Amino acid sequence: MAGNYKGLNSLIRLSDAALNDRRRELNALQEREEEIKRKLDELEEEKRREQALSRELEAGAFAYSGYAQGTIHRRKELERQLDALQPMLEQARDAMAEAFQELKRYQIALDLRKKSDKEAADRKATIAMDEISLNMHRRNQVEPV
Fold first, then answer.
1. Residue-range definition of the domain harbouring residue 17
2. What is the pTM of this model?
3. Are 91 and 26 contacting, i.e. CB atoms less than 8 angstroms apart?
4. What is the pLDDT of residue 143?
5. Please, which residues have CB within 8 angstroms of residue 78's CB and are 6 or more apart in sequence?
6. What CATH number does residue 86 fall under?
7. Is residue 57 predicted with pLDDT exceeding 80?
């Protein structure tokens, strides 16, 4: 019976592999997103430390303005990277959802085919049992016991 499902089983394996590929791609993008967010958080923390240090030191106020400009530039660059990543994340999520739906379609088709084959086999078994019972009944009617 497994041979009857060879094509569907192959499609399921291929779809499962494609889904795993889409998951890996999405995970890589999500890791990149988390890394950028982490860098933004670190930059914000660094900025707070520098602000506190510039308040404590006399020369710190002069140096802080140059630092602040660099911080603004780095933050904008990280935010640009994050914004550029969003469409790729959305596309990866859509691709993964599509791969998942394709896999489910094949799994459902396989389940339906197995159910249909089982029902057909059950019908054949019932017909065979009915015929055996009918033949036994006929024999009992014809032959006195």
1. 2-142
2. 0.73
3. no
4. 62
5. 36, 39, 40, 43
6. 1.10.287.1700
7. no
